[in-house]
Specification:
The structure is a homotrimer of 395-residue chains.
Chain A (H helix, E strand, L loop, with lengths): L2 H9 L18 H19 L11 E6 L5 H13 L2 E5 L9 H10 L4 E8 L6 H17 L8 E7 L4 H15 L9 E5 L11 H10 L5 E5 L8 H14 L2 E5 L2 H4 L5 E4 L5 H12 L3 H15 L9 H4 L8 E2 L19 H16 L1 H13 L3 H11 L7
Chain lengths: 395, 395, 395
């Protein structure tokens, strides 16, 4: 990377990210998204060249994980650390949905000296994103009433609707793989349901992928067995996006058909919308028996679609028999992490290293979201860092 | 804040805080307390003005929490981070009281490169503060015998007797609310028991409040239903304090009577002294059945005093119908966090933001305690920081 | 310490530690070991003289603990913090042995911005060290395939075979106690089994001690009741080491005989090799009943050897009745931490402070391992730090 040309490139973009939370990609302008990609790339190259982009001398980055996570947790910690912030975990019980005064108060109590709050809350349909906005409103009030010296930014680390740090990392991977955002135009990406022996996987990854990739002129095909729908509004949104971006959007019910001539395939399991709706109701009512029954039904239904495995035969149907395989990891690999799963071991192994590279963008995407939130003129600040040229490791 | 005048003010005070633990406010001189308030205010203003008071290039601040905590944990983490220290948690089982060699050894093992140990140990009457002193003695020995390169300071983050980081934050809130410490003279503050559906809340907050506020010429009234006594020695101490400071100290058994003409009301539940004594014995004997029975008895007795709720009617009895409401949070708010609780939702809402501001002083109080412990001449060090004028966030 | 002479001393050593993991002391050359000792000493003195050896402006030090730990955890955190790294814990379930793709993937996912991975994995015979190498191979691949910007170094924080940060800290303690490595030549060190009422203590400490101390011309005597063997290969290795270093190595079956004329005694319990073999099989098969039976058998057998307690009578048999007592802590002290244990309270108390000092070297040994891994020319980098002379605490 030539830093000067990257910074010149960034200079031409007019994002509106300063002091804005990053909750859903579809609330962000194309310039916002491009700015995040550019900043992430610059930060990544700085790190590789031993230039330290530490802009905070102190400060906390709070993390709230209502669901287990290794990858996103490390990505968030890495991003915070790179910029100079210390991570402080806020333990939240998984089973409880906080509202009202509890949220308002807690949001302020953890924010007196905090710069960011990263939240993963993907368990309840209709709740995760709402919770983030409730936290945001509390922070707005706290800042307005001078309780807080500044308004911490919120980073959505996965909710019921979107997984923007994942989808943006995926987009940066595609941009680099194909050479540019422009090069993605007309490329066929298949977001396909795939069989998994586990249950209740969130819909936020496929939703995030179709809603984001449809904005860059790609031919997006969403494939799933009948009944495995995603949230209807997000599917509609993706359709509209495709029209605006002059790409296309299609839904089909066969992985085999879908992957034909695909440039990119993203086979991943999820639990269907109507199951998630029922599950959320049962969880709210703490109906343990109902939840167990739903799980059994759901697993039994999944089992009908074991042929929704991405394997060598299907790979051979793709463009040049070599579509880029993507996964947010960990994948359910047949014969490796489970008996039968989302992808055959041979096919996975073929693209294993690229999936690691895909994951490697996430820390920088998060750091870029923080950076763009904090600095009104991120380009100038990046130029400052380059000028200072401080070593990350003493040399 | 004018930094120069604040520093001049601090210059006139002769505290004896260097290399001293902060365990109980009543062991500290008036100058000690004033110095903490001044340093905390200066650090808070520095942070607000983007001046970084980071004085440690590395170092650990150990935390030992024998009880759950979000507010104090974040306050401690924020204070440590502001000064440049990394927090390292020491997991302690809640149910076990360590003594003797275990304490001596552990205290040294966690301190080789540590600058502070913050301890919350409020579960057992007669134990928490004692434990902190045992840790302190072990650190003294370790330093004397050259096991440790320096003697880490201990910060009491709540014990069975006092909660000095809370009461000092509360005092700073009062000082700022009324304009000066001098302005508190003659003000009536009511520390009142209040009904709560939960059980076993520690006495350290009310004890900390009466023991501290009685030193500044305030008219302190402690109100509780008959039988809900605090530790007698601390009540006697508060009485003596009031005589020395030319304020007053009174005990009464009616919230309604107590709040009349009050300038400040602090309605908060606690478990009575005699219950805490029994509970400690039962806990030591691991008498699960006895503990359950005690809890039932205690809750049943609490329930007789549901009218000890601070509400609009009571507020209207206070000075100008507008006494400053205080709480260490979270409050048991009737109809919000519980059916019937310490405060009505209407009254709480009226003072909600001030309670957040009150809480916001705690990180700086802790940072000030650390700062004053570490630097023999804190005034000079603060002046140094101002002169350097390093940005917390790059600008 | 005279820094210049220490650095000159280090200059004469030709270690091969740059970008090498530290997994087993017996894979390291004598120069490697000496370099670690020298660097650790220099870092310790820097810290004592308020010179900050912070060489990282940011970066993560990952910790993976499959077994509980306070001492090693704090040592690792202290070392990382001293050099400027933030610790990020990777939670691993204790009962599960990960292999293959899980290890490969996880190793990469936690390493995008990490400089070190510290691993404690001592539960399963034949597994802990193997796991570390599997992680290392995954990191090698990740770095080679440009997934990772650099290859994080691995520090063995205790495995089934060795506990190198412990044994190296112990060696530094001996070096300082007796004045030099040369002074250790001909000294008699007794690594003795001792009775403990607990079960399943790992063999890595005694193995680490005999394998390391036998390299410095010491007369090493390993004493244990019949049947309490260590891993045979490591015992053989120690025998060979003794021949090469012109020391001696002897096995005996009486603590009383062994400690005669000893300069150093290290009485510590462990579970025998054949028990650990059985335990590993039972653990792999999740045979809970078998594990309980094995524990009972093992404890019953231990109980036959309660006279294997190091006490005043045995101490009086040692050189000048004052052999240096060593322990990795916590010791099972008779009448203190258990009814009957590894050492009498009177004897332990006599050497209590030296055991604390012994432990105090570990953070610096770990920091030295990190330092030597990261810098091709550690001597030059240490000289740089001295020249900069940055204060750890502002003065």
């Amino acid at each position: 990377m030539n830093f000067q040309s990257a910074i010149n490139q960034l200079q031409t973009i007019k994002p509106n990210l300063h002091q804005e939370d990053f909750l859903l990609t579809w609330e962000k302008s194309e310039d916002d998204l491009k700015a995040i990609l550019e900043i992430a790339s610059i930060l990544k190259t700085m790190r590789e060249q031993n230039i330290s982009p530490r802009v905070f001398d102190s400060g906390l980055a709070v993390s709230i994980f209502r669901d287990n996570s290794t990858r996103t947790r490390f990505s968030y910690a890495s991003a915070a650390n790179l910029l100079g912030l210390a991570v402080q975990d806020m333990d939240e019980t998984k089973s409880q949905i906080a509202h009202g005064e509890t949220v308002r108060e807690t949001a302020n109590m953890i924010s007196f000296l905090s710069d960011f709050i990263g939240i993963r809350d993907d368990m309840y349909l209709g709740e995760g994103n709402k919770y983030m906005r409730e936290v945001g409103a509390a922070l707005d009030e706290g800042f307005a009433k001078k309780v807080l010296p500044s308004r911490p930014g919120i980073v959505n680390l996965q909710c019921d609707m979107d997984h923007p740090t994942q989808s943006m990392a995926d987009l940066l991977h595609l941009k680099n793989h194909f050479g540019s955002l422009e090069a993605l135009r007309g490329k066929k990406i298949v977001m396909s349901w795939a069989y998994s022996p586990s249950y209740g996987k969130p819909m936020s990854v496929p939703q995030g992928i179709i809603a984001l990739m449809s904005r860059f002129g790609m031919n997006v095909e969403l494939a799933y067995p009948e009944g495995y729908d995603l949230i209807p509004e997000i599917v509609e949104l993706s359709q509209s996006n495709a029209i605006v971006s002059e790409g296309s959007f299609k839904i089909s019910n066969s992985m085999e058909e879908a992957v034909k001539d695909a440039d990119i395939v993203y086979p991943k399991s999820w639990a269907p919308f109507h199951i998630m709706q029922q599950r959320t109701e049962l969880l709210k009512n703490r109906d343990t028996k109902g939840l167990q029954e739903l799980e059994q039904d759901c697993l039994a239904n999944n089992a009908k679609f074991k042929d929704w495995e991405y394997d060598e035969a299907k790979r051979k149907l793709t463009k040049n028999q070599d579509a880029l395989y993507m996964h947010c990891l960990p994948a359910d690999i047949s014969g490796v992490s489970c008996k039968e799963g989302e992808v055959s071991s041979e096919t996975f192994e073929r693209y294993r290293i690229p999936t690691y590279q895909q994951a490697g963008y996430k820390p920088y995407i998060i750091a870029a979201m923080m950076f763009a939130n904090k600095f009104e003129k991120p380009t100038e600040e990046l130029a400052n860092i380059l000028e200072k040229n401080k070593n990350r490791i003493e040399r």
